[in-house]
From TrEMBL:
Gene3D superfamilies: 1.20.1260.10. NCBIfam families: DMQ_monoox_COQ7. One of its GO terms (molecular function) is metal ion binding. It is an enzyme of class 1 (oxidoreductase). Keywords: Cell membrane, Iron, Membrane, Metal-binding, Monooxygenase, Oxidoreductase, Ubiquinone, Ubiquinone biosynthesis. Pathway: Cofactor biosynthesis; ubiquinone biosynthesis. Catalyzes the hydroxylation of 2-nonaprenyl-3-methyl-6-methoxy-1,4-benzoquinol during ubiquinone biosynthesis. Fe cation 2 binds at residues 94, 146, 178, 181. It is found in: Cell membrane. This is 3-demethoxyubiquinol 3-hydroxylase. The keyword Oxidoreductase applies. Its cofactor is Fe cation.
């Protein structure tokens, strides 16, 4: 992104609104890499399996909505341009994840979570506040969040049947990317959060996963 000093507050507000809409409106994210699922054949899944996998992919999609919001909230308030640059690559990859998950959810005849605007707002707020506290804290949040996402992805990969190569290919690529995002946030100076903070984040993410699985 160009130097933000050229943007007026109104410009920045409009840019944020544009990003939010691009995250929340169906089919609006343009992935820069094709989905790893396209080379995999569609599996024969029964309706119970299909519903379960769609629920898991809905959780992952909502997780990506949260990631977008976190990065955008953080970019709004981060003090050092260096931090924004460090996280821009990660934020681009999150756009891919978002689009891949949405494509897969539609292939499974389902829809993204209706709660996404709510989770977007909450995560944007967390990102913006963390960015206000310090760049170290805000990068620490990214690292802790990405760690959490890797854990979810591992759990989901255990639950998704081997024959569903499409869903698995997406989650495996996402897992690699998220691990790198966590590492680059720590390398850019992110704080390692103490266990109680991580526990609080785990509890919040439980609320997200329980609800997004269903609606
Ligand atoms: Fe992601
Ligand atoms: Fe990520």
């Amino acid at each position: 992104m160009a130097n933000d000093r050229h943007y007026s507050p109104v410009d920045r507000l409009l840019l944020q609104a544009d990003m939010a809409l691009r995250t929340l409106l169906p089919f609006s994210g343009q992935p820069s890499r094709p989905s790893p699922a396209i080379v995999e054949p569609e599996a024969e899944l029964d309706s119970k399996q299909t519903r379960h996998i769609a629920g898991l992919m809905r959780i992952n999609h909502t997780g990506e909505v949260c990631a977008q919001a976190l990065y955008q909230g953080q970019a709004l308030t981060a003090k050092l341009p260096k931090v924004r640059a460090a996280m821009e690559h990660a934020a681009d990859e999150e756009v891919d994840h978002l689009a891949w998950c949405e494509q897969r959810i539609r292939q499974l005849n389902s829809h993204p979570s209706v709660l996404n605007p709510l989770f977007y707002g909450l995560s944007f707020g967390v990102g913006a506040v963390a960015g206000l506290v310090s760049d170290r804290v805000s990068l620490g949040f990214v690292a802790a969040t990405e760690d959490q996402v890797v854990k979810h992805l591992d759990e989901h990969l255990q639950q998704i049947p081997e024959e569903d190569g499409k869903s698995r290919a997406i989650l495996e690529q996402m897992r690699n990317d998220e691990q790198e995002h966590a590492n680059s946030a720590l390398n850019a100076g992110g704080a390692r959060f103490p266990a109680p903070v991580k526990l609080g984040m785990t509890m919040l993410s439980k609320v997200m996963t329980k609800t997004a699985y269903r609606i």
